[in-house]
Structure formats: C-alpha cells, structure tokens
Amino acid sequence: MTAASLIKLQLEKSEIRLRKALEGLTDQELKARPQSLAPAFWQLGHLAASDWGVLNRAGAPPELPAFFQEQYRKDTKGENLTQSAGEVWAGFSKVQAGLLALAAGDLEKPAVHPAGIYNNVGEGIFYMLIHRGYHHGKIMTLRALLGKT
Prior knowledge:
By secondary structure, the protein is mostly helical. About 60% of the residues lie in helices and about 0% in strands. The chain contains six helices and no strands. The chain has helices spanning about 5-20, 25-30, 40-55, 65-70, 85-105, 120-145. Helix 3 runs antiparallel to helix 6. It is globular and about 45 Å long. The model has no long low-confidence stretch (mean pLDDT about 95).
C-alpha cells in the first residue's frame, strides 16, 4: 500500500466515522452545549475550517462561505450558530474532496503551518487526520452527555 492510498483510505474512513458520530442527533442536540462544551455541530464546522487551512497553505483552497473562518476557527466556542447541518456538511465535503485530491498528488509539496506543526502536504494531511480523531472523541463525549449511545 502506498502512502497516498493509505492517506486516502484514512480520510475516507474518518469521514464515515464523523457521519456516524453525528447520525441521529436532532438540530437541537447538534447545537446543544452540555457543560458549556462547544457543540457537536461546531466540531464538524471546525474540522472543515481547519482542513481548509491545509488546502490554503498548499495553494488549493476550495471556496467556502466566510462563516467557516468566522464561527468555527479554534478560538471560537460554538455559540449562536445559525447555519444548517446541510451548509456545514457541504463545506466539509468540499474540503474532504480537496484533501483527497492533495493526497493523490505530491505529498512533499510545501504547505507550511505558521506554528511549525507541519511543513508539507503529507504532514499536513496526517496532522488533520489526528485532529479529526480528537474532535471525533469530543463528539462522542457530547453524545454521551446528551444520553445518546
């Protein structure tokens, strides 16, 4: 298995896990903030905004509505979210397609994170996969706090 095919597989599997984690939650539950945590809905939008960052640094950003960078960046808390689940999933789908396209190309292509977290496309996508796993865990915690299995 090549590095590119392994990355592609993990990107696809991480999307499946995220979809399953959010499955069955009502709009109210998606935006609920038990114990003042950022809601499940925010977790997904945040992943789209963060994944977009890798694409932007690689020179291949899809066009996303401004609300992603305004309401879902790392220093926001998921308060007063007004977007629909469809809008956020559409943005996530765009960045997912972009990451899959990047994974099929030159993994050594420069894509430098300003804090030095990654320096090229391969490192950036790998970091985003770890980041997705972290937020998947947050979603699962929110599900438990909402009494969902």
